[in-house]
Amino acid sequence: MSELHFDRHRRLRKNPTLRRMVRETTLSADDFIYPVFAVEGEEIKKEIPSMPGVFQFSLDRLGDEIAEVVELGIPSIMIFGVPSEKDAVGTGAYHTHGIVQEATRLVKAKYPELMVIADTCLCEYTDHGHCGVVRDGDVVNDESLELLAKTAVSQVEAGADIIAPSNMMDGFVAAIRQALDQAGYQDIPIMSYAVKYASAFYGPFRDAADSTPQFGDRKTYQMDPANRLEALREAESDVQEGADFLMVKPGLSYLDILRDLKNTYDLPLVTYNVSGEYAMVKAASQNGWIDEKATVLELLISMKRAGSDLILTYHAKDAVKWLKEDAR
Ligand code: PBG
């Protein structure tokens, strides 16, 4: 034994206090963005079956949910709209009194300090469920850009603080930046879903937002999960076009991409810990197969460690409660 030389890594793991001192990454309420589903109608608080603990709220019921988010110290929400009527061109997305616009007005009137991020996309509002104008079975890029730009401007007119375009049309950041600037909104940041994969993990969201494509899939506009270099090209375009934040979506299976972007760009980086990721954790923990709190906090810290500055997650409220519990 006397000839044996090795490092004693365990020295720094000896007790909780020491572990706290050498911890490289931490989580706090400031890291989170909480997604909220606003639905047209009245007296609706409807749990999404595949997302236990997540609800669709009509505007008259949204107040308590937002109050809880604010009370927990979460600085920001992302609002998704579930309209009662849809059409081929997604009129509800850019209507002055659309569901997201009305929800935004309501929230901002009561909580001016809460940052409201608008998801700027058409799929929740189109009857075919695609993210833009469809012709000959595919989404037409440039025409869709016009509608997207209109949507962004109407969301900002309603009070949205940040625009988050998620439809993956080429040039969406450029088109939205130009439209916002022309409308006098030079100071509104764009949080681009720069790298968004055509993922199976969006399933529960599409139940929640009623936005499943009625034919085909999103593979002509969302990215192939097999590609890494293409993610860098996507991000580069958005940076050139003027994005203020970059997002990677989904989170868990794409932590390598997140790290690549962190190493390449100095913009704030966001991860979307998506609905399917949430559903997996919920299902396993409800079966008693994993410890929900420990699992969620581990997943979230991993996203931060991988390079995320902000995490858009359905676990946000629970995570903050657990962090507070642990701090006591
Ligand atoms: C809109 C949009 C989607 C999600 C966020 N914005 C669905 C999709 O692209 O099909 C998914 C979020 C989640 O799964 O939690 N385009």
From TrEMBL:
Pathway: Porphyrin-containing compound metabolism; protoporphyrin-IX biosynthesis; coproporphyrinogen-III from 5-aminolevulinate: step 1/4. 5-aminolevulinate 1 binds at residues 206, 218. It is an enzyme of class 4 (lyase). Its EC number is 4.2.1.24. Zn(2+) binds at residues 121, 123, 131. It catalyses: 2 5-aminolevulinate = porphobilinogen + 2 H2O + H(+). One of its GO terms (biological process) is protoporphyrinogen IX biosynthetic process. GO terms for molecular function: porphobilinogen synthase activity; zinc ion binding. InterPro entries: ALAD, ALAD_AS, Aldolase_TIM. 5-aminolevulinate 2 binds at residues 275, 314. GO terms for cellular component: cytosol. The keyword Lyase applies. Keywords: Heme biosynthesis, Lyase, Magnesium, Metal-binding, Porphyrin biosynthesis, Zinc. Gene3D superfamilies: Aldolase class I (3.20.20.70). The active site is at residues 196, 249. Mg(2+) binds at residue 234. Transmembrane segments: none annotated. It comes from the Bacteria. Its cofactor is Zn(2+). Belongs to the ALAD family. Homooctamer. Catalyzes an early step in the biosynthesis of tetrapyrroles. Binds two molecules of 5-aminolevulinate per subunit, each at a distinct site, and catalyzes their condensation to form porphobilinogen. This is Delta-aminolevulinic acid dehydratase. It comes from Pullulanibacillus pueri. The gene is hemB.
